[in-house]
């Protein structure tokens, strides 16, 4: 299949947008930018499109998709009940990086929800995404536009690396703003539960809807606890290299990573190190990249997936990373990093 490349970095191209919308209506797949990561879109009400998405990504079909909408009213036909808290959250955070889990209506095929009776819905805060949803009929199912198991794409070039020749079109809207997937909150429980941490923090949610809980699966260090979001159980966000996180006081972390890097290099391995601005000059024997300034979690979040992909491209086989537990987005960032590391964390 020839994948069309639609350059919209300088602004939305109306003709291409219309063509992309038609591809979606005809059951095809279009990758598009959002404010979080790039999504791989297909018609969310079409079982066949959902199956194509799973095939293109190599994703297990029990892992449900998020339906993207462009206006609040469109929530009604795809849900069987809308709790008051959903309205409050939408008023506060939509369009934006928040996904809500709600009971689904019969309009949504089981293929889209991976066999669940609930549906994940999000209204993205990105102009091109909203226009594509409208042009495509209003309901676009979209997982992150990566091959299953690889880090989520934060540029259209990342999408092309993984999906060129497997999907109908890629809309290039430049680099995304946030760089981590949306916060997922389950509103089917009495007390809403955060299933995946993201840019919208627990505190931001509880400021508008009161008490929220965290899914135990990502608060606990025990990887055997089963998360409620099916996708959270996979070794996800993963680079090809082995990743190890080293956590502790800065001095000790730098010393330990340098020892590990020297050992791996002596065995002929190509080593990558994820440092921060304050420490990057103190490492050696490796390809060293700073994720950013430790106090600037926006930058660290935006860089993380791109760094993991860059190390893959350079053929790195061992990556050592500092723990990036920054004050505000730390939970969301560490959730991704810990999974990329397959829970390999060394405390020093
Ligand atoms: O920021 C985002 O959310 C991006 C952009 C493209 O919007 N999308 C994204 O989709 O990250 P994906 O498919 O990579 O992740 C969706 C997550 C998976 O962990 C999935 O298991 C969970 O949402 N999920 C979807 N529907 C669910 C449901 N009904 N109940 C529980 N978890 C659900
Ligand atoms: Mg994903």
Question: What amount of the residues lies in strands?
Answer: 15-25%
> End-to-end distance, in Å?
50 Å
Helix content: 25-40%
The quaternary organization reads as single chain
Strand runs, count: 16
Q: Which ions and ligands are bound to the chains?
A: threonylcarbamoyladenylate, magnesium ion
- Side by side, the strands of the main sheet go 1-8-2-3-7-4-6-5-9-10-11
Radius of gyration: 20 Å
Order of helices and strands: EHEEHEHHEEHEHEEEHEHEHEEHEHE
The global form is globular
Mean pLDDT, nearest integer? 95
Helix/strand/pairing class, anyone? alpha/beta
Largest sheet: 11 strands, mixed
Low-confidence stretches: none
The count of helical stretches stands at 11
């Amino acid at each position: 299949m020839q994948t069309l490349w639609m350059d919209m970095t300088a602004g939305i191209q109306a003709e291409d947008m219309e063509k992309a919308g038609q591809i979606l209506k005809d059951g095809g797949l279009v990758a598009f930018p959002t404010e979080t990561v790039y999504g791989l879109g297909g018609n969310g009400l079409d079982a066949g499109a959902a199956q194509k998405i799973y095939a293109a990504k190599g994703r297990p079909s029990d892992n449900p998709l998020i339906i993207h909408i462009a206006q609040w009213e469109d929530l009604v036909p795809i849900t069987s009940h809308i709790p008051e808290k959903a309205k409050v959250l939408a008023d506060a955070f939509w369009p934006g990086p928040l996904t809500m889990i709600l009971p689904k209506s019969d309009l949504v095929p089981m293929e889209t929800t991976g066999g669940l009776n609930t549906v994940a819905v999000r209204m993205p805060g990105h102009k091109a995404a909203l226009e594509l949803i409208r042009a495509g009929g209003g309901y676009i199912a979209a997982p992150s536009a990566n091959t299953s198991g690889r880090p989520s794409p934060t540029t259209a070039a990342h999408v092309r690396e993984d999906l060129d020749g497997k999907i109908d079109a890629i809309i290039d809207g430049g680099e995304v703003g946030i760089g981590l997937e949306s916060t997922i909150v389950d509103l089917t429980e009495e007390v809403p539960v955060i299933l995946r941490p993201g840019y919208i923090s627990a505190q931001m949610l509880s400021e508008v809807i009161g008490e929220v809980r965290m899914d135990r699966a990502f608060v606990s260090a025990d990887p055997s606890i089963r998360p409620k979001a099916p996708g959270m159980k996979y070794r996800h966000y993963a680079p090809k290299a082995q990743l190890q996180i080293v956590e502790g006081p800065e001095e000790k972390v730098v010393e330990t990573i340098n020892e590990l890097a020297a050992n791996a290099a002596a065995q002929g391995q190509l080593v990558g190190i994820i440092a921060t601005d304050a420490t990057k000059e103190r490492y050696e024997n490796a390809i060293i990249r700073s994720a950013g300034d430790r106090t600037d979690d926006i930058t660290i979040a935006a860089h993380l997936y791109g760094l993991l992909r860059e190390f893959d491209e350079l053929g790195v086989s061992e990556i050592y990373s500092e723990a990036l537990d920054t004050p505000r987005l730390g939970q969301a960032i560490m959730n991704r990093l810990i999974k990329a590391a397959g829970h390999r964390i060394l405390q020093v």
